Structure formats: C-alpha cells, structure tokens
Amino acid sequence: MRKVLLATCLGTMAASAAGVAIANDELTKMAQNPKDWVMPAGDYANTRYSKLNQITAANVGKLQVAWTFSTGVLRGHEGGPLIIGNMMYVHTPFPNKVYAMDLSQDNKIVWKYEPKQDPNVIPVMCCDTVNRGVAYADGKIFLHQADTTLVALDAKTGKEVWTVKNGDPGKGATGTSSPLVVKDKVLIGISGGEFGVQCHMTAYDLKTGKLAWRAFSEGPDDQIMVDPEKTTALGKPVGKDSSIKTWQGDQWKIGGGCTWGWTSYDPELNLVYYGSGNPSTWNPKQRPGDNKWSMTIFARDADTGMAKWVYQMTPHDEWDYDGVNEMILSDQQMNGQNRKLLTHFDRNGLAYTMDRVTGELLVAEKYDPKVNWTTGVDMNKSSPTYGRPKVVDQYSTEKQGEDVNTKGVCPAALGTKDQQPGAYSPDTQLFYVPTNHVCMDYEPFKVNYTAGQPYVGATLSMYPPPGETHMGNFIAWDNKTGKIVWSNKEQFSVWSGALATAGGVVFYGTLEGYLKAVDAKTGKELYKFKTPSGIIGNVTTYENNGRQYIAVLSGVGGWAGIGLAAGLTDPTAGLGAVGGYAALTNYTALGGALTVFALPQ
Amino acid sequence: MRRSFLKSHVEDKLLRHIWSVIATIVVVASGNTSFAENAGDPKAVKSEDGKYLDKEGNPTFNVAADGTIDWYTYSGYRRYHSECHVCHGPDGMGSTYAPALKDSLKTMSYGDFLGVVASGRKNVSTSQESVMPAFGDNTNVACYMDDLYVYLRARANDAVGRVRPGKREEKPAAYTEAESACMGKPH
C-alpha cells in the first residue's frame, strides 16, 4: 500500500515539479501581505495575527459597522471569509454555498456556487452542519462539502475545475474542516468519530484532484504512514505495529481518530501539523488499549505524508477529548535559546508547548484551573510513563466502569477549548484563547456498531464548574511558562476564533452575538457590538482602499448550539437557579450574516 | 469478545424481526391515524414485567408516590443522551437545528413515534434542512424504542424534570433477557 502511494506521489511530483514551487511561493508571499487574508488561519503558522494597525487600542472604541451581508442560510456558521485583492469569498454551512464578492464594486456578487448534495448527509454530521471555510491557491477556491466532496472552483468564475470524493457519508464520514494548500497538494481531513470511521489526512493534487497520499490515524504501519525506525514519539522510534498493537482485534477499523480540525505548515521544515480525534466508541471499556494514534499530534512530511514525529496526548480516551485543535507555530526564545515551537490548546484542558522540529515536549499545563481529570503530565524523561497524563481515578470513566455515572469531570466533552482557534501575537508573545468553562457527568455503556449509524455509547450532562455561573473565559496565555496572564469571564462558552493585530487589539465573538475588542496587554474590553446572531465564526481582518476592516460571521449553532441553546443542567442547584445557566435562546436566534466593521472616515 | 461490534448471524435475524414489527406498526399508524393529537392519556393502568401500559395498551411511564420511577424511563434517559441528544438537545429540550421532543411527544402517537424513529423523515426547504435519519437497523436505538418513548413521554408530561432520574425500579429480569437477545451476545 505504502509503496503504491509513494510511487503515485513521486510520479505526481515529477509531473508538476515546475508548478510545485510556484503555488507554494505564491501563497507564502500572499500571506505576508497583511491587506489580504488568504487562508482560513491567516497564515501557515495558524497565528491569526495581522500586521494591520490602523485600528488600535486607542481608537477601536469608535469602530462602526461598515456593511453587512446575509448568507441566506441558517444554522451554525463557523470559519470566516477569505480576502484576496478586491475579492471576498464567503462560505456557508450545508448546503455549502460560496459567494465571491467584489469589494471594489460595492460588494457585488460576482459568482455564487451551490453544490447539489444529498440531504441525508445532514443527520450524519455529529454537531450541526458547520463548515470551517474555503482555501485558495493557483487561481482556485477549494471547498470541502458536507458529503466529503472536495471541489476546486475557478476563483474568477466559480466554475468547477475538478471534484473528488474523500469519504463515504453512508458510513458516517462527513466534511466540516477547511482544506490547506501546501505546494502542489490540497490537504483535507475528515469527520465521523461518532460513527466509527477510520479517519485519515489526505493530500490531493492541486491541478487534477488526483490522490497523492492518505495517512490513517490508526491501522497497520503502511496505512498510518509511519516508519517504525524513523518516526519518533517523544524522541524514541515508535517501533513496528505501533497502532494496531494498542487496539483489541480489528477494532482499529472502526477506530475514529478523525481529522476535522486545523492544519498548519512550516515551509522550512516542510512539515504539516494536525491532531487526531477521539477513538470510537465513547465507552472506553469496549476498546482496551491506548488506541493509538487517536488523540495525537502528527508532524508529517508535506510531500510524502510520512510521519516525522507523533505525540499522543490522551492515551485511551475516556471523555471524548479530541486532539484536533490547531497547532500554532511560533519562533521564540526559551531559556536563552531560539526555539521553533508548536503550541496546542487541547480539548483535555492542557496546553502543550513542543519543539516542532523534534516533537520534544517542553510544557504541558492546565489552561483552566478547574481541569480535574488529571494531576498533570509526567515530565520526567526517565520515567516509564514519561509524557503521559496522570489520571485521577475518581474522574476516570474507565476505572468507574460501564453503567456508572462518573460525576464532576472537568472539562466536559466539548473540552476546555474546541475547534475555535486561538491567536498568537509576536508583539506580546501571548496566545489569545477562546475557552469553555464547563464540567460534566459521564456514563459509558455497551453499544453495537452498525455502519452509518451513531456509535457513541455514553450519556453525559454538562454544567458550569461547581460554584461558578459563567461557562466561558477568554484568556491570554504564556506558552513558555504555561501560565494564564489574564482571563475575561464570559457567560457562555467562547466558540469564536480570535484575531490578534499589530494595533494591540484582540478580537473575538460571543455566543450571544457580540463582537468584542480587548486590549492585547491587559484584556480590558474596549468595544462590543451585538451582531444579528450568536458568533461561532472566526474574526478576520483585511485592508481595502486604504481602510482596515474587521469581518465576522454570525449564525449560532455547532456543538455549542446543542447544549447551550437549551440551557445546561445543574444537578445540584436546580435548573435556572442562577443567571449564568440561563438559556442562550434568551439572547439570540438562528441567523447567517457577515458583519464588517471599520473606523468612521 | 474480539468481534463484539460485528453483528452475528443470529443478531441479523433478530434485527430483521424487529424491523418487520416496526414496519407493521408504521403501516398501521399511517393508515389509520392522523399525525397529531394522538398522544393519549399517559396514565399507567397496568404493568407487565416492569413495563407500564396506558389504557390503550401503549407503553408509558410510572412515578410512584415516593418518586421512584420505572426502569424504562431511566433506561430511556440514558439511551436518549447517547443517541438522540446530539441533535435534539439535552433532556429533550431541542437544539438550534432539531425540535424539542418534550414538546413533540405532547401530540405524537406511539405508532408515529416508532415510525419516525425507524424510518426517519425529511423537511428540507430553502430556509430549513431538517433530516431525521432512519434508526431501524441500529440496535442501540431499535432495541430501546419503548425506553426512549417512555422517557420522552414522561418529559412531555412533566413527570420527570431536567435532571438525571434518581430513585428507580430495578432492571426487570424479563427486560435483561429481551435486551440481550436484541443487542446480541456476547460482549
């Protein structure tokens, strides 16, 4: 299998060797122009930082709405638009429309694309019909549809150039993540961890859509594309059959480990970074073993797909702490040395700082003090449990067992942070992180696997940490010391991606629908405006005709739209006893709108 | 144990049986009854092996004077929060994209409930895309249809609140037997 893939890969590389450098250079160069926003995360390093500084901490209080646009679609709007020159590309949740608008012509819609998809894919999507945005390269817009179709559209006309199917929705595979273009390839992940999909990261040829490589999260070495001798975990070779020997029988075939989060890329190292999600089912008793490589950070060669290093954060998951959140790449000094760092805020409530060249673990600390399922990661390099989290028995759903309700686990399954991406400012060297502040009861029980049907096997209820009334925080984090620098309370989970700017301002949205601007140094709130619906989109900035704009999608939904819209239960104080538990429906309703802000002229 | 997730031949047979029973009910339901206002009086008039039945003979909840709830309501609570809540919200409260079943079950009949859960339904328009999948061949749902119905009926009638049910009856022996047969053994 691997040989075939490699051969295909080499063939593709040889065929388009001339085009390789061009597409990559084009994107790298474009990402350096702060006037544009050319990829969903802003840049390959996923910093969500902009050098634009017209809007500053001093003047952001005067921000006004410049224009708005209704997407014509309800339900959860994750992600954000791309801006390239005078063009803006806006995507929607299912049915996955794309609008191309000309900013120089009063935002006229130049073209609109709407794929035809079987609506049967809707209920196979675990947590609303979200989509996290389109990608651009080589004159094409890449859209990852709900039914896993990856389509390349002519950026000028919206006409289909090629399409390829990445998975089978009939078996529970769906598409929510945003593609990333690296060199001559489009990288795409897949969703379906609640349906027992054997998930993978796949690279397609930029020009033709032909499969270049596919690396599964679990399975035999050739399928997961590791070299037993050369691929390392915490500095040591992973060895033969590193994945399948951590699963019972052939459970890995329905093992999950989905790849629906964000991907980043280091052009110098030629490595792509992403995380894998929960092992299927949610009942840990039913799948003994570490379940590798679910819950894992992967560093893979962008050309071949071969893994350089891996690190499993939550071996044998017992709480649905997917490891898919973004990997933010930064070059910083640590203990007097220049380090190439990777910082990752995991669902499990730990923030990891790693050396992204070697995969060495440098820092692993809780970024919400309420996290209680672990006492921390074993950082002793000579310990047999080096790099593993120490699990507290009281909160272990494995130890408590099937048909037992394990109470008071923090964080809840939606994690201290979910997919909503954080931002990094090189000016302050701080990370700005939208977080959830929610705990849960979790009761696992036996389930049967049926292809295309939910494969969950746990009941859970969620509520704010005991004694607290707020369910979210927006924090500034120091990745070198592993400490919170400042923290702003939010009534609801912060489910919106952050933006940091050279103007010393950090932006984020809230589930009630506010766009907020805060001081990057202190967290002081400088501006807020209530948009038409709750915000689970990511804040973007761009410059057009000499003005800096801030743009964000509203449209409440996503996983946050499940529990929070109904109000979370509080088993101790009773429902609605405290204002903090009040239902989100008292604050906002479904919508789908882009709101664009600027300073008054 | 090794292949616990793969259906055995025996299970397949059982499943087909469940399916045909459900299919029959659907035909009856859609042939004889209108869709709404068929929820009926939820009062339990008798019980058989720990399952309570209303005067129509449909399964229903039972809350004893001391607050003890029947096994089916409890089991339904558990299964609901595994299979249904990701769309229909915690405690049947609904979400931004699926209806609150604590309200739907105020008017929906037992037959209609079984039909929709087994076969699914679609409501797709320009402003809405609601799709309920068919769960008829999913043993995690099909084996617990009555549990789910009884729990949601209890929610619709405010017999249980938005909390995990507390004091409950023991799991009936006949239930355990039926569950094992339906879900397939061994695990």
TrEMBL record, chain B:
Domain of life, source organism: Bacteria
Gene3D superfamilies xrefs: Cytochrome c-like domain
Residue stretches in coiled coil: none
Molecular-function GO terms, alphabetical: electron transfer activity; heme binding
NCBIfam families the record matches: 4cys_cytochr (TIGR03874)
Name by which UniProt lists this protein: C-type cytochrome, methanol metabolism-related
Annotated organism of origin: Tardiphaga robiniae
